Amino acid sequence: MPLLGQEVYNEALAKELEAMLEQDSKHRREVIALIDELGNDDPKVRAKWDEINEIDSLHTIRVNEILDEHGWLGADVVGSKGNVALFLIIQHAKLDVQVRRLPMIRQAVKDGKARSENLAMLEDRVATKTGKKQIYGSQLRNDKETGELYMLPMIEPEKVNERRASVGLGTIEEYIAYWNLKWDVEAHKKRVAAWEASKEN
């Protein structure tokens, strides 16, 4: 028998969360393929994003119910895929949900129920959405005029790899190579300086 307050493996919840994870991943793979084929502004791409946003909303409602009832569930309760699903659905939720759940995920990392690298990505996402500089360099954006993908502003970019290593993330060079980009700290600093100057004008 589990001790009071302890959770045991919940097969039903694990399967439910795994299904959400698969649906989340499937539709995002599809929209990436559409963007590669048709570009960001094609009506089919916009329609796909509308579909994804609706799915995200439904997933967020359900995950909030789960978290309110159980708290953050580790892999011992919902399996590794279920645990990842909790994070990804919050990562893809609206900002108010991310802000609300951030303290819970911070505590879950301390308790060994969530991965520090996942928390790092959520910390960065909340920071960039609220106009602050990110910490770990996980958030990129497309330039609206040129379409160029670039790294959103971060604190002390010359020390980013130290911070990434502290939470189990690979180097910034390895991370952005996925998008065929090369890390240039001086170019990043110049872009951020220009961005900050434009905000002041």
Q: Percent of residues in beta strands?
A: under 5%
Estimate the mean pLDDT confidence.
Answer: 93
Q: What overall geometry do the principal axes of the alpha carbons give?
A: globular
Q: How can the largest sheet be summarized?
A: 2 strands, antiparallel
Q: In which order are the strands of the major sheet placed?
A: 1-2
Low-confidence stretches: 1-5
| Through-space gap between termini | 64 Å
Query: Taking Cα atoms only, what radius of gyration do you get, to the nearest Å?
Result: 19 Å
This entry's quaternary arrangement is single chain
List the total number of helices.
8
Counting helices, strands and paired strands, the structural category is mainly alpha
What's the number of structural domains? 2
Helix content: 55-70%
Q: Could you spell the SSE succession in H and E letters? A: HHHHHEEHHH
Task: Please supply descriptive tags for the structure shown above.
8 helices, 2 domains, 2 strands, mainly alpha, 201 residues, two-stranded antiparallel sheet
Topology (elements, then pairings):
Layout (H helix, E strand, L loop, with lengths): L10 H28 L4 H28 L4 H17 L3 H16 L5 H14 L10 E3 L6 E3 L8 H7 L5 H6 L7 H16 L1
Antiparallel strand pairs: 1-2
Question: What can be said about this structure in brief?
Answer:
With 201 residues, this protein is an all-alpha fold. The protein has helices at 11-38, 43-70, 75-91, 95-110, 116-129, 160-166, 172-177, 185-200; strands spanning 140-142, 149-151. It is built from eight helices and two strands, in the order αααααββααα.
